[in-house]
Amino acid sequence: RSIALLPIRTYLGSWVARPSSSERTWLSFFGCLRLSMARRLARTSSRLARSLSTALAEEASSALVTLHDRTVAIGTPPRTLVDRLSLTLREGDRLAILGENGSGKTVTAQLLGRAIGGSADGVELTPSSAVASSAGVGREGRAVVHVSFESHRRLLQSEVREYRESRFDVTHRRATLASYLFPELRPDLPHPNGFAGYTPKEARLAPLPVPYDADAHHPGLAALESAVTRGEAGELLRQFGLYELRHRPLFAMSTGEARKTMVVDCLLSPPQLLVLDEAFDGLDSQSRDDLREVLLRTLDADGGRRTGALALIAHHPDDLVPPPTHALLLGQGEGRTGFLGGEWRGEGAP
Fold it and tell me: What is the DSSP letter of 169?
């Protein structure tokens, strides 16, 4: 039996040790195939790694602000409104900030704006200071602008103060929609009463050295007329129904007209964060409908204008315009200092 099996063992050993030419061809083929697959896998892995790295970099670059375990508190001693708030706000986000009165909606929006501007640490937060940035200041370098009933009130107060300090009188034109939008084009004419040394604190709210009844054809208003009737400004004023009011004094505007003017200002020079904080308060039914319609037309994601990010604060779901993409619900949990956050899933609820 041993002798009979010897040729078989010898054959097997010969086959393993010395394959035939056809066998060598197949072995070479499979070897090349494995090498090719390994190279392709390496290239695919490299592409995936680069794509992931690019995606992460783009995501990081689109983030306007990221808060991690931040406490929102006001007063002395501090009273906590939101405990350990964590969220990321990106360009194009429309964040609805919801909650009961006193839950910290306005102050939370203020914190987001301060963080975007790089000054969130060690700064006292108060609901009243949150709107100061939108009352009579220039547009350059704005991180956050609030459009609200309170910011509207402060705007009018600042305009009255500037008028009184100017020593102009009732025969002269007070700050208009056009001079508010384009303060750099304010007429550079001598003071009509001959006073020297007057320099406007807020040029966009200062009265104009032209007669109170000056119209669009007055030579002193030529530069303003040209700027406010052309390009994007003229288009926006037509969309908002303000074109015929372009030289109307701010103090003579209705509440709805002034609120629209503030929104147009933000669209001409978008801040990184626009806060519509109960922006419909104080408007009659028709004005609310008009403002909703124009906001939907100009700010909606589908073909709308980009304004960095939007924060929407409202008591009524109908006033969340344009529709949110995300929601932050404050006043949750024990002590009412918790929060819930996530994508906006439908009308009326986060």
Answer: -
CA angle centred on 311, ends 102 and 263, rounded to 5°: 110
* Phi (first) and psi of residue 257, to 5 degrees: -65, -40
> Tokens standing for 8?
């078989």
Tell me if residue 242 falls in helix, strand or coil: coil
The C-alpha angle with vertex 160 and arms to 191 and 141, in degrees rounded to 5, equals 85
Residue that is written with structure tokens 């109170």 in the block: 212
Ranges of the chain whose pLDDT falls below 50: 1-16, 55-60, 122-124, 126-138, 302-303
Q: Beta-carbon neighbour count of residue 111 at 10 Å?
A: 25
Distances (CA, A) of 314 to 58, 67, 199, 329, 330: 31, 22, 39, 12, 13
Residue 231 DSSP SS3? helix
pLDDT of 317 = 83
- For 44-82, the DSSP string reads HHHHHHHHHHHHHHHHHHHEEEEEEEEEEEETTTTEEEE
Label residue 277 exposed, middle or buried (CB < 10 Å: 0-12, 13-18, 19+). Answer: buried
